[in-house]
Specification:
heterodimer; A: 321 residues; alpha/beta; eight-stranded mixed β-sheet; four-stranded antiparallel β-sheet; 12 strands; globular; B: 319 residues; 11 helices
Chain lengths: 321, 319
């Protein structure tokens, strides 16, 4: 068994909004092994970004804990910054426009006081090379680069301090299709070269299915299904995951599929439904779904789902009618 | 049969400090009654500017050239008053972000009523009834009560339904939808696309669907134009395009899309990035620098369109 690199235990992030309490993350637990990529799949507002930020302690958690190699990461996470870094969605907003590429990439090295043989400049050049940027560009500014190149700068900055765990929050969604493939390949190559682990947060089913070893599906602050990537697509168990995977438009000949289109909108996290939070949109919901909150149960080996209507004995949900 | 819309050799040019930037170049296509035409392209491909040109809405200082015939009328010869009479009635538009196209200070029914009062001559009472009816047809629950609410009281998906209600209120012959579901979640996206398909089937309206998402095109378009650097690189019936893509750009774009759960070797990628059209030499293929199949000629001469199959054209020297 590979070593567990990161553990999240019953993590909750609640914050007040207009006199009510938003339960953005509501009791999430998972482990990520060394070298593993966990995909965190969810739609907007499900809490996936908040969860990613809470792991890095960029967002204060209400309760629960995050462990790195068995050690609890405190609210002041500075001692852990060299090991855990983040790549952001928007390469335009996350780079300081007044700083040169060199100073952007050097920032974590300087801030964390990491010494390198040959000095910071050499380290920056090495990082630029590694992410596919010519070192001739070191003295340029972010606006002189395309979206894809800016994302490469963001990746170089994240990796400069030699972390082994990266939270990548929608790292390709702002990019064009032809550039997305470049960045996905780069992330995969770096993972193999540098033995990185990723928490890859995305709403893009294709991208997550490509890069992740396992996938956690999040809905209204909770993880509702967790399985190896191939299993999740081949045999989703939880109705929400079934709807998500079938909503993906098919390209080419495979277009003839049975599609499950959900009715209604995602409820507000200010007042999530009682019991199962998905029940208001679930075609299989029965009265008991409103009463008790389903727990994440291992239905098949390594395949967890939170749904009162399925169990290890009955993994297939039975129709209501 | 005469097509509903016919575009011939459309050019859109913007001045830039490097000389004229030809953002749309030699674009020609037709849309028949009831047909769904998909236009797919990455940012800078000219797909959105093409649709703005059809509506006579290219921002200054852009210059438009070429022929745009809608129901046989030359759109480019019409004055602003005649264009306004067509826009919103026979020809209407749905944009990506309903929040920026809806007026935050008006109840949604009033925004539907504005178009029906102007184009259909409805009275206030008629317009309100019609607005509620439209909100019902686009699947807004409790439409009578929600009609008086403001855009911010609707979710993203519901706002897009309101936009669709506005755009369909005057029974358009042609609907132009520019990335109508890009701002929405996957499960909501499926609802909106199904709704568009249903409403279109009932009204027999034609559709131009502009998107970067090949999957959406595959499931919703009858015919497809693939755009790159202001040109149509390939045009074909949708089934044919996905079964038998010919242009190297289309083929590369399709190969870039990850297949969930497949991890044999690195994903295919197109090197480099889309060109800046203002810096692109006129006498070469715009894709030549990124193309795996390019030959010398591709960098010396602009390629011609050639027929690669039934109603299937490709802008390429090689295929």
């Amino acid at each position: 068994m590979p070593e567990t690199l990161l553990s999240v235990r019953d993590l909750k992030v609640h914050f007040p909004s207009r006199g009510a309490l938003v339960r953005a993350v509501d009791g999430v637990s998972f482990d990520i092994a060394a070298g593993e990529t966990l995909g965190l799949l969810g739609e907007s507002g499900c809490g996936k970004t908040t969860l990613g930020r809470a792991i890095l302690r960029l967002q204060r958690a209400t309760s629960g804990e995050v462990l790195y190699r068995g050690r609890r990461i405190p609210e002041d996470a500075r001692p852990f910054r060299r090991h855990i870094q983040m790549i952001f969605q928007d390469p335009y907003a996350s780079l300081d426009p007044r700083m040169t590429v060199e100073s952007i990439i050097a920032e974590p090295i300087r801030a964390l006081g990491i010494a390198h043989n040959g000095g910071t400049r050499l380290r920056v050049e090495h990082m630029m090379e590694m992410v596919g940027l010519s070192k001739r560009f070191a003295s340029r500014y972010p606006h002189e680069f395309s979206g894809g190149q800016r994302q490469r700068i963001g990746i170089a900055r994240a990796l400069a301090a030699e972390p082994d765990f990266i939270v990548a929050d929608e790292p390709i969604s702002a990019l064009d299709v032809s550039i997305q493939a470049q960045i996905l390949n780069l992330l995969e190559r770096l993972r193999d070269q540098l033995k990185l682990s990723y928490l890859f947060i995305s709403h893009d089913l294709r991208a997550v299915g490509r890069i992740a070893d396992r996938i956690a599906v999040m809905y209204l602050g909770e993880i509702v299904e967790l399985a190896p990537a191939a299993t999740l697509y081949a045999r989703p168990l939880m109705p929400y995951t079934k709807a998500l995977t079938s909503a993906l438009p098919a390209i080419g000949a495979a277009a003839a599929r049975k599609r499950m289109v959900l009715t209604g909108d995602v409820p507000s996290p200010l007042s999530p439904p009682s019991g199962c939070r998905f029940r208001t949109r679930c075609p299989y919901a029965v009265a008991e779904c409103a009463e008790s909150k389903p727990l994440l149960v291992e239905i098949e080996r390594g395949h967890w789902a939170a749904c009162s209507r399925i169990s290890p004995e009955r993994p297939e949900i039975e129709a209501v009618h | 049969m005469r097509p509903l819309l016919s575009v011939r050799d459309l050019q859109v040019t913007f001045p830039s400090n490097r000389g004229p930037s030809r953002v749309v170049q030699g674009v020609s296509f037709e849309v028949a009654e009831g047909e769904a035409l998909g236009i797919v392209g990455e940012s800078g491909s000219g797909k959105s500017i093409t649709s703005l040109a059809l509506l006579g809405m290219v921002p200054k200082p852009g210059a438009v050239d070429g022929d745009i015939l809608f129901e046989g009328r030359d759109m480019r010869s019409l004055g602003e008053k005649d264009l306004r009479a067509i826009r919103g009635s026979k020809l209407s538009m749905i944009f990506q972000d309903p929040m920026t196209s809806l007026n935050p200070f008006l109840p949604v029914w009033v925004q539907i009523a504005e178009v029906t009062r102007e184009h259909l001559g409805h009275s206030r009472a008629q317009a309100r009834d019609h607005a509620v009816h439209m909100l019902e047809t686009v699947g807004i629950p409790d439409a009578g009560a929600r009609a008086s609410q403001y855009p911010h009281q609707f979710s993203g998906g519901m706002r897009q339904r309101v936009m669709i209600a506005i755009s369909l209120a005057c029974k358009p012959r042609l609907l132009i939808a520019d990335e109508p579901t890009t701002a929405l979640d996957v499960t909501i996206q499926a609802q909106i696309l199904d709704l568009l398909r249903e409403r279109r089937r009932d009204s027999r309206a034609a559709l131009i669907l502009i998107t970067h998402d090949l999957g959406i095109i595959a499931e919703n378009a009858d015919r497809v134009l693939v755009m790159y650097a202001g040109r149509i690189m390939e045009s074909a019936p949708a089934a044919e395009l996905f079964r038998n893509p010919q242009n190297p750009y289309t083929r590369a774009l399709l190969r870039c899309i990850p297949e969930a759960g497949r991890r044999d070797g690195p994903l295919f990628q197109i090197a480099g990035q889309p060109p800046d059209v203002s810096a692109l030499p006129p006498n070469q293929c715009p894709f030549a620098d990124r193309c795996l199949e390019a030959v010398d000629r591709c960098r010396r001469e602009h390629p011609p369109y050639h027929r690669v199959g039934e109603d299937h054209w490709s802008l390429c020297w090689v295929r």
